Each structure stands twice: as structure tokens, then as C-alpha cells.
Amino acid sequence: MTAALAISMSARSGSEKIAPIDDRRARRRDERSEREWIRAAQSGSSEAAEALFRRHWRPAYRAAYLVVRDAHAAEDIVQEAFLSALRALDRFDRRRPFGPWLHRIVVNRAIDWSRARALRREVGESSEPDSAGAAGERYSDDVAAALAALPPEQRAVVVMRYVLGYTPGEIARILGFPRGTVNSRLRRGLDRLASELEEEGPP
Amino acid sequence: MNEVRVRELLQHRHAPGEQAAEERAWRVISAGFAGRGPARRARHPGRLAAALAVLALLVAGLTPPGQAVADWLRDVVRPGRDDAREALVSLPARGRLLVTSERGPWVVEHDGSKRLLGAYEDASWSPQGLFVVVTRGHEVIALEPGGRPRWSIARSGRVRAARWSPDGFRIAYHADSALRVVAGDGTGDRLLVRGVAAAPSAWWPGPAHRLAFADARGRVSVVETDSGRTLWRSAPADAVTGLAWSSDGSRLIAVGPRALRQFDAGGRARGVLEMAPGTRAQTAAFRPASVEVALVTHAAGSNRSRLEVVRIGAGGAQRRQLLAGAGRFGDVAWAPTGEWLLAAWPDADQWVFIRTGRRARPAIERLRAVGNIANQFDPGARTGRSPFPGLAGWCCAPVGRPK
Predict the structure, then answer these.
(1) Does B119 lie at the interface with A, CB-CB under 8 angstroms?
(2) What domains can be seen in chain B, in order of their start residue?
């Protein structure tokens, strides 16, 4: 690809990593349409609320699932996060993107849930049947189990980086951690994932 | 492992149940959004809140219905009972509570004194309360109630959910997704079945060693653990998060987020209580010497929980509400005599003890709430609020030490 490149930080090495400019344009387009949906939803449009929901549900659900590894809990967490977000929509600043706001609620709740489960160990792992018509391949049990071996905060950072696509700087702002903490959690998370999956790291 | 490989593993893949969950969630969220109406930005939210508070005080002071309005206002916005005591000074009924906390399991005596058993994860009583079986990492450990280990075994997998059989001669536990059984003295450990759900197994309370468990497809099975013979298996259904037998062994309930299923001892379905849309069943427990079940549900749309006593029959379910409030309720535990019920209310940091009669009404005879629960089971916590502890059982009256 010869397009101009935008820059974001790489978690593992701290070196610069590149993303195509086309992605940035698409992202800006998405943000514009999202601002319109938020404005309409603030005025009571359920179509606009549904558009917001449809755009954000699946990534948020996948992130929650990978943090809590329980499909029902993930559904509850994301559903409640959406309800909270839509209830507070009147106070939302339309100049800001909706996704990070929602993802902060989802990820923090998922971390809390995982900590609570670590204590109680009562709620089951996912036994939800696979979605009919879901596009793509399902997360493998090995990957889900390897992620589950990470501490919840590390898991959340890995998921935000590699499922939701945030840069370490964005993750730091969203979760309120220092940037160095995010980088170190990512680094440790990748190392641990490699060890759980018994894959070699880069030389 | 590099970032490219992680992206391969995590991107463009989907989670289980994604599409169905999306449609369910949209039904709940759209209903919540429709009830919200068009936005009206409050210019002076503080004044509005003050006006509401004054209104609540005025109507409460004037009329009994006003009191109800005030209760409703308080109940909607803030979880918990206002009359909660500051500390747990005693249990309202005989027996001892087993409580799991971040620090480990605690035994709470009738007089309110409590003892930390050590740095273990989950815990469960032996049938007469002479021992506690706990897990830690790869270990299953039998402890005396004072905390002294009697024996331990280690497995290669992560162990949890150890449960003692009613005669004390067997312990079932999960090792990763396998269900294993060991004799009550720690010998004869063996694999019973693989691929079970995370819901803890439940021993039939009769003389034979029969164990109920759920698998990942929501099927409930009962096996004779000594022979390994499967006595019955239900059809696949909603995921199972909890199992419990009635104390006479005549009924078994399987708790799932969307339904409470009841079976008889032979595996025949004896009624289903379906949850309303947007409501999830959280936990349920049979009342001792009864077929009544304490059921905790949570409605996501309103973020309210409800504790009910339910009697499920072939013709439907009779339900009596005991407690409802904002936020989530947690575990429930019946006192050994079945007169008192303890309900955890993590969002309020409270335990609520409810004495409820066995007649259809009145539902509540006495109620006692205790606050500051989290900190009482995590004394000396450095910062913030401690995680809320779990209830692992309210056991039998105190007996002498084992010989």
C-alpha cells in the first residue's frame, strides 16, 4: 500500500507503528455520522439510538466476552453499559466520540465482574451456542483460555488494543492509567499469552 | 508472540451467542430508550433534586401514601435499607455462616464472632459442619473449622467448587472443566466426567452417592458416583448457573439466567419458571424441609433486584416477594431451620436477614439489615471499598470437635 500513513505507538517495542490514511478518513466519516446520530438520539430518535447500538454492540460484546469469558455476563455488562450511556446521553458532549465513552463503561464493569468472579467462582463459563449467521470464525477456546489466565486489568488492556483497536495512549486516557502502565501491561500480556499458547516470542 | 499474531487471533472473530444476544439486548435497550422520551437539558439539576427531596419530605410527613412515595423515591435512587445496623453483632438464628472473601473464607459464629480460615478461594461445609472443604489453586483441602488442615490433594488443573456428600464419605470438585470425586478422607481421587459447566455440582441428600451436574449444553445429569452410571439426563436448555436439591431429595432445581427449571428425583420435568424479558435469574436456594425456593432476579432495564419465595408446580408458580430494591442482590442462604433467610445486597454493602413464615402470608415476620459488610470481612483494607464477600452456606448447630 502506498497511501500516506498515520502514526500510532506500538505497545511491545515503543516504536512507531503505521496505519493507512484511508482508515483515518473512514474513521472521520464514521465520527461525523455518529455525531448526527447522537444529536438525533438526544432529541428522542429511536432510529438514531438503534444506529448507535448497532455500530457499537458487537465490538463491545466481544471485548466484554474476552475479559469475562462468560457470554451471559458479557451480554449483561454491555446491555447495562448501553442503558447507562443512553440514560446519560443528555449530558454527553457531541464533539467527543461515543465509542471510547461506552468502552470505558464496558471494560471497567468487565474488570469488576472478573474480580468478583475470582472470589466467588460460581458463575459458569460461556455455554452459549454459536450464533447462527455470525460472520467469521469464533474465538478459539485456547485463545479465550489463554486470555483468561491474565489478570483482569492486563486482559482488558490487551482486548482494548487488539480487539477495539485503540492505541496505548488512547487506552491510557480511556481507562485513566499512566501510559507506561498500559505499555507494561501490554508487554506482559503478550508475553503471558505466548507462554500460555506455547508460542515463541520475537527474537 | 508478536502483535500481528495477536491480531490474527483476536480480530475479525466473533464471540459465542453474539447475534442472539444483540437482538435480546436491543429489545431491552429500545424499551428503555422509548421510556426516556426526548431530552430536556436541566438548567439547574441541583434545584430539581432539592425540589424532589422537599416534595418527598412534605408528602411523607403528611400522609401514609406520601410515605409510600418517599419510600419509592428513596428505593429508586439508592440501594439499601436505611435501618441497617453498623456491624454484624450476632446471627438471628442458630448455626454458623461460611463466608468467602478476598482474604479467604470466614466462619461466623452465632454470636457474631468470626474466624478467618486462611488464604483459600472457595469453601463449603461438610454435612455436620465438622469440617470445611476449601480450594486454592490446584489444591483441595479439608480443614477443621478452626482452620487446621486435615488433608489435601493436588491436581494438575485449577480446582474449585468442592462439595461434600450428605453422608460425608465423598467430595465432588471441579478440576478445570472435569468433575472429580474423592473420598471424604482424601483418598481414592478419580475422574467422574469431563466437559461440565462451571455451576457447582449438587449431591442428592439421600443415602446413595448421586450427584447432579450440568454440562456446557445446559443439560442436567444425575450420576451414581460409585458406579459412574448415569441415572438420567435432561434435554439441552438454557445455560445452568446453579443446581440445588430440596432437603427431602424429591426435587432438583436448575437455575439459568432465563428460567428456573424443576425436576423430580427421577429426572421428570416438574415445571419451569420463565423470567420476564430483560430479567435474569441470579441465584436460588431451597428452603430446608420445604419445596419453596428463594429466588433472586435482576432486571437490567431498571437495574432493580427482587427476592421472592417461589413454589413451582405443574400448574405454574406461586410467588411471594420478600425484598426489592435498586442495584443487584447477591447470594442467599437459608438458616438451618428454614425460618430465616439471609440475602446479600452488594450494591448497598448490606446483608438483609428476613424471617419469613411458612404460611402463604404474611411474607415477612421480621427483617434485620446490617451494613458495612465488605469492610468487616476485609479489615485493614488500605484503600477504597473491599470486594463484597460471598455466602457459602449457613450450617448446622454447633457440635463437638471431631474425635
Answers:
(1) no
(2) 96-395 (2.130.10.10)
Interface of A with B in 106-145 (CB under 8 A): 115-116, 119-140, 143
B43 interface with A at CB cutoff 8 Å: no
Strands B279-286 and B269-274: unpaired
Q: How far is A196 from chain B (nearest CA, A)?
A: 11
Q: What is the pLDDT of residue B138?
A: 93
**Which among B32, B216, B241 is the nearest to A83, CB-wise?**
B32
For B217, name the nearest residue in chain A, comparing CA atoms only: A127
Other beta carbons less than 10 A from residue A29's beta carbon: 10
Does residue B121 belong to the interface with chain A, where contact is any CB pair within 8 Å?
yes
Q: What percent of chain B has pLDDT over 90?
A: 51
Query: What pLDDT score was predicted for residue B74?
Result: 42
**Residue B355 CA to its chain's centroid (Å):** 18
pLDDT of res. A199:
57
Residue B230, phi then psi, degrees to nearest 5: -85, 125
The answer on pLDDT for A141 being more than 90 is no
β-strands A16-20, B340-345: how paired?
Answer: unpaired
Among B16-20, B250-254, B257-261, B326-330, which stretch is predicted with the lowest mean pLDDT?
B16-20
Residues of B in contact with A82 (CB under 8 A): 25, 29
Choice between A81 and A123, residue whose per-residue pLDDT is larger: A81
- Most confidently modeled range among A78-87, A119-128, B234-243: B234-243
C-alpha cell at B217: 449444553
CB-based contact (8 Å) between B24 and chain A? yes
pLDDT: which is higher, A28 or A65 = A65
- Residues 168 to 187 of B: which have CB under 8 A from any A CB? 177
Alpha carbon distance B326, B301 (integer Å): 11
Buried b / exposed e over B343-370, threshold 16 CB at 10 Å, is: bbbbbbbbbbbbebeeeeeeeeeeebbb
CB contact under 8 A, B37 and A57: no
Q: Say how far apart CA B246 and CA B206 lie, in whole Å.
A: 11
Domain edges within chain A: 33-196
C-alpha to C-alpha distance for B93 and B339, rounded to whole angstroms: 8
Asked if A184 has any chain B CB less than 8 Å from its own CB, the reply is no
Q: What is the pLDDT of residue B57?
A: 47
Q: By the 8 A CB rule, do B330 and B342 touch?
A: no
Pick the CATH number of A33-196 from 3.30.70.420, 3.30.1510.10, 1.10.1740.10, 3.40.50.2300: 1.10.1740.10
Exposed/middle/buried for B282, CB within 10 Å: 0-12, 13-18, 19+? Answer: buried
Higher pLDDT, B373 or A76: B373
Among A79-93, A97-111, A161-175, B293-307, the least confident range: A79-93
Q: Which residue of A has its CA nearest to B99?
A: A120
Task: Say yes or no for a CB contact (<8 Å) between B38 and A44.
Answer: yes
**B192-231 pLDDT per residue, tens:** 999 999 999 999 998 899 999 999 899 999 999 999 999 9
pTM: 0.56
Calculate how close chain A gets to B189, using CA atoms only, in Å.
22
**Cβ contact B198–A42 (<8 Å):** no
Asked whether B82 and B74 are in contact (CB, 8 A), the reply is: yes
